[in-house]
Amino acid sequence: MDEPRKRSRPGRAPAPAGRTARPRQSEVARLAGVSQATVSLVLAGKKQGATISDETRQKVLDAARSLGYVPDPAARRLAAARNDLLGVFSFTATFPTDVQHSYYPFLVGVEQEAAARGYDLVLFTGSSTGGAGAAGPDALSRVRLADGCLFLGRHAPAGELRRLVADGFPVVHIGRRDELEGLAWVGADYVSASREVVGRLAALGHRRIVLIREDDDAPASTDREHGFLKGLEAAGLPGGPAAVFRSAAPERELTAERLRGWTDDGVTAFVAEETDTGGAWRALRTAVRDARVDCPSEVSLALLGSPPPDLADGPQVTGFDIPRTRLGAAAVRLLAALVAGEEAAEPLVSCVFRAGATAGPPPAP
Amino acid sequence: MDEPRKRSRPGRAPAPAGRTARPRQSEVARLAGVSQATVSLVLAGKKQGATISDETRQKVLDAARSLGYVPDPAARRLAAARNDLLGVFSFTATFPTDVQHSYYPFLVGVEQEAAARGYDLVLFTGSSTGGAGAAGPDALSRVRLADGCLFLGRHAPAGELRRLVADGFPVVHIGRRDELEGLAWVGADYVSASREVVGRLAALGHRRIVLIREDDDAPASTDREHGFLKGLEAAGLPGGPAAVFRSAAPERELTAERLRGWTDDGVTAFVAEETDTGGAWRALRTAVRDARVDCPSEVSLALLGSPPPDLADGPQVTGFDIPRTRLGAAAVRLLAALVAGEEAAEPLVSCVFRAGATAGPPPAP
DNA sequence: AGGAATCGTTAATGCGTATTAGTTATGCGC
DNA sequence: GCGCATAACTAATACGCATTAACGATTCCT
């Protein structure tokens, strides 16, 4: 005879008054007249260990239903040595006051893919405030509570990241990040996308195309230039340093005069890289307007990415879209693979060409 | 002598190659030369059981840090403790493809407040896709992994919610929801806000004001009407059924004629309730336009909420803003209190009056 | 000086479930 | 009728952590 149900282990926080204890497998077992293990086996429902008689199975199922049994996820996860949690860590707030600055598009994909794979997400509210985790050197160590973790933005401290990677903790970075040996990441395929844009322009009849880029060397910039040059080459067009202009105020500013010079010289199309400020694109638009050349009848313009929000109105810009949602999903897929101990897959996600209205055939000579 | 680390319990999924398992308290203990219990005591950090020497405490902390120890949430939870995780559950996708339909404004507040209190967030990717969780009767049971859970939207199945509440699991619903006995919730104080709007109109000199509402009885509608009537009463203005118009197409539609009837009868201001469709406000604007009365010179208009996004341009509408971000924060505060076993606090968050330009003094008689 | 009170730590136990190694029934062949 | 495989369960154990009773070592008191 065992004590009824009054289990009041001392020291245990007193259960909130009036709280009906949830039924456990052991209670289902008692009601069904079998052992707890049997209940577990039946409820696991695996077709594999089918060594349970139909009669017993039914008794257990009935008992479980009548008691309203629900498994305790904590216990389940503890016993299974996994918790079906994927972390999401962004150095800045994940939900900044301004949606524009948020990772929302990524999160859409992350949530979808995570849900599809049965994972829940842990948002580490790190960094932003020093709440309880403070900003110690082990600030990132809480992420280990998940089975693996996604990092957004390039602000994650390299040292800590390296540590996680070295420990074999599954980590995926959204955005190219290959200076960190062994870090898995997913990124947009700027090379191919840029190359395609050039290809489209060439197909329209353009023979001389110039890339306007800013004067820094982020991977995103380098990739685009690389793709641009490959595109020229593939189309049999003149490449070389003359096809690329690094604008740098004030010495090498993109002025209307300079633009005129190019068009007079036979250049019929311009391509600008996308950056977070949209600097190159802004400069290009301004120069075109000041030079009083019409787009797209006199010059064609294309942007290697999407225009900044404040320039988003007006006719659609020829260029490509970065599939952030798909990137988020790809990141989760990759992370799930790492968690499962598989090898990393293809990290590049292709961008989608956007025809737009700022490019057309070159003017007749 | 115990086996080194090769713990390969049969049946357990083999750890991914090369992956160092997360450190456990027992490993921290070994490194620090103490027992697992001591580690637990030290890491619990309770000032209460201060029966640990500073020297030992330091050894343990160092060991934990150097191993990157992080407690297993499932184990913690199982041992009837807390794990500093708050759940966020929305029946629809938390990050829908369209930001407009998302809970973003709430999440901003939720994240801020959670971070400030040292909680991380678990996003339960429920329902939306049938991924792994399917739609069983225990769909909500996963939330029990967290210390408590926030529910967004009124789609959370009442049965499951009731179950969680009955079991004493801390739950907070964002948005009024008092048909469910014992469910904690936070909501906007529509009564006070509506009352204030009426007060402002009265202060401007309006003596007859009519409320245009839709024909349903959601709490949000009832609250607004209640506040509206209280406002009239406080200002000593005529209330009663005549002051409220339930528009219901087609029998009782809000037509220009009807509007004219009111203005001819001395009504100088109209107030519409906000709904998700914005129906009442749309009808009111249309009627005013068709009746060719000018706003605000001839009639004053106010909206008990914010205009729908597609009507957001033009002059600002007199009314009030629902402080979604603050609501999110308030929800977290309440949830934290419940988790701590305290009693629920004030669930209402006040709205902010928005002066706008659609209301002014009544025309001279 | 002998016993009590105190301090610092550890051994032991439980949380609820999954898994596996038994342990009984039952049926079978010879 | 006696092993022996098979079926149907159950006992035992581990998961990682929190909690507490118990214990050895000091220090304190009278």
Explained architecture:
- The structure is a homodimer of 365-residue chains.
- Chain A is α/β, with parallel strands linked by helices and 365 residues long.
- Chain A has three domains: 56 residues, 434 Repressor (Amino-terminal Domain) (Orthogonal Bundle); 126 residues, 3-Layer(aba) Sandwich (Rossmann fold), CATH 3.40.50; 134 residues, Response regulator (Rossmann fold), CATH 3.40.50.
- In chain A, 35% of the residues lie in helices and 15% in strands.
- In chain A, the strands form three sheets. Chain A has a six-stranded parallel β-sheet with strand order 2-1-3-4-5-11, with helices on both faces. In chain A, strands 7-6-8-9 form a four-stranded parallel β-sheet, sandwiched between helices. Chain A has a two-stranded antiparallel sheet with strand order 10-12.
- In chain A, helix 1 crosses helix 2 and helix 1 crosses helix 3.
- The longest helix of chain A has 16 residues.
- Chain A is elongated, with a radius of gyration of 29 Å.
- At the A-B interface, helix 4, helix 5, strand 2 and helix 11 of A face helix 4, helix 5 and strand 2 of B.
- The structure holds a DNA duplex (30 and 30 nucleotides).
The coarse overall form of chain A would be elongated
CATH class descriptor name of the largest domain in chain A: Alpha Beta
Give the SSE order of chain A as H and E letters. HHHHEHEEHEEHEHEHEHEEHEE
CATH topology of the largest domain in chain A: Rossmann fold
Look at the structure and give the mean pLDDT of chain A: 85
Strands of chain A, total number: 12
CATH H-tier superfamily of the largest domain in chain A: Response regulator
